[in-house]
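Notes, Module 5: Reading structure tokens.

Key idea: the token line is not a picture. It is a compressed description, and you learn to read it the same way you learned to read a sequence, by spotting repeated patterns. We will look at two proteins. The first is printed below with its tokens.
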Amino acid sequence: MASLLRKDNLKNNLERACIHRDDVQDLVLLDESDAFPETNLTLEIEDKDEDSKSLASPAGSVSFEGDFPGTGAVSFDVVSADKIKDGRSSYVKYTILVSGHNKIQKVPGTVEKRYSDFEKLNTCLRKRFPELMEEVSFPGKLLMGNFRNETIARRSRAFEQYLTHLFSIHRVRFSPDFVAFFYEEDLRNGYAAMERGCYSDAISILEKCLPVQEKLQGDWHPDVIGTLCSLVICYHAIDKIDMALKYADSALSCLHGNRRDKHYLPLLHLDIYFHWMQGKDKAHLEANLAQLRKDGINTDKDINLKALVLDRFKS
């Protein structure tokens, strides 16, 4: 039976180890390849109230106030750490909750990573940004040690602070390495499923990516626009017009009236059609289309939204 270290015990574990928040990242921590006890162990951290999500809270998540378009306060919280046996080896799988306040996806996103994923990210970033990364602490390894609750609590806390520090550095946050760590592989899988015509599979993957994308990059980011357009395409393909309309509205909102964006016109045409299909008022959308014509833009062009999205992602 798995032993559980719950949220209400995390603070006590840190206090027993005499750990202060500013000291956590300087600890030398266990590598995922270290020996584990015979019993499986899962560290579980229960959901917190909004009032408890504070940087000052010793057992709370670490947050950073985004200062770029479309972002708000973002927090990284390790909500579970699971021991996984893979043949003769074992490792710890960390589930990270990415929370924030955004207009598209109110729910937090989650990603699952192991120590080697963090280590790869850290190595890549230090090669790409040696000066920017000088002040960023990364939890190190201990060649020998026991798999203790206190150790897992320390490492989880250190990873929260590590990701928060990276997020606060603009060039790091928008780097391909940061994107790859959080969602690039899933995004490629979702686009590949859409290209094959496996629209339901694509939806399940892309809807998992979207909350993480929007919170990390902001609702204006091309990756977010691309995912929203993809969900429009997928839901339209399986005749779920209400959901296609929802994502078309969101995508147009995220474009902030940027009529020069190549997605704008095909999205506008589709959104007008979806509103007509659902019996909803489309006058405001038709007014936008009329304004494009008035400005001399050819609104009768046949633009394939699916091709646009796939071409951008392949480039």
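Here is the second protein, with the sequence above and the tokens below, as before.
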Amino acid sequence: MHKLLSRPLSNPPKHSFSCFFSHSVSKTTYDPPFSPISKPPKPKPKPPDPSPNRNPTPIKSSLPFDFRHSYSETDPTLEPIGFREPKRFSPFGPGRLDREWTGTSAPVRDEVGSCLVEEERIRVLGDPLTEEEIEELVEKYRHSDCARQINLGKNGVTHNMLDDIHNHWKRAEAVRIKCLGVPTLDMDNVCFHLEEKSGGKIIYRHINILILYRGRNYDPQNRPVIPLMLWKPYAPIYPKLVKNVADGLTFEETMEMRNRGLHSPALMKLTRNGVYVNMVARVREAFETEEVIRLDCTHVGTSDCKRIGVKLRDLVPCVPILFKDEQIILWRGKRDKE
């Protein structure tokens, strides 16, 4: 007995325990804590319904003029010599307009008599405003913190701007227009196109600030349909602005005029998107004593330099003979001694 008690106990068999654990785990599903919840299957997308018409009805507008990207900064009488994109790419979108795009404009199909258009405009404007009414509207809309304001930039009176004007006229009698850049060279042209294309009336004009009145009988519910341009079309290619030899001069005389202009003091130093209301008068005054003048257009941009040169050529008038390093050289042209 004593020998049996003093005999050390043998270690319990490990083989049987490990077999039991492996057997139990293999037969039961292992579910650890915080197991991810299975997501419901995503619904399959529905096939497109073929019933809607993929070719919408073209928009018809009763506006009696040709649609252009810019009305004040383009000359409809000047024909381009080429295009940078095919004519079939209409900026109004494919099939969205009942007019055909020619590359520069969308001509009106059914022409309306000018007398009928003028009669309708007079009817919408109604009786002329009294001085007290004009003073009240001007005091309300002429300030810089006016909420009813549209900025007019280097593209001038654009097509989509007409829609912006009518949107403001829904809740206000007038809209304030702030003009900057190249169009301010000819504010008369800007005012003409604003009144003609929108049907309103300019009741206030101070330097580059305009107030456009909608009229007494204007009805926002019967406003004209104005299809929007979805993108700005590429400008067409026009004839060369500056000739190698100016009209009335020889090649040597043209080169001499250009060198004189480059070395002469600048008449004006222009800024980008500035106000150029007095530029035409100053250029005319300078041509009374000078034959060639220079305009410093540093930081204005090459495209704006050429636009300014074209405007001055027609308004002064004068002859642009050089565009170089953002400098404009103008020659007054040959004049009679008288």
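Summary for the second protein:
- The CA atoms of residues 87 and 103 lie 5 Å apart.
- The first helix runs from residue 2 to 6.
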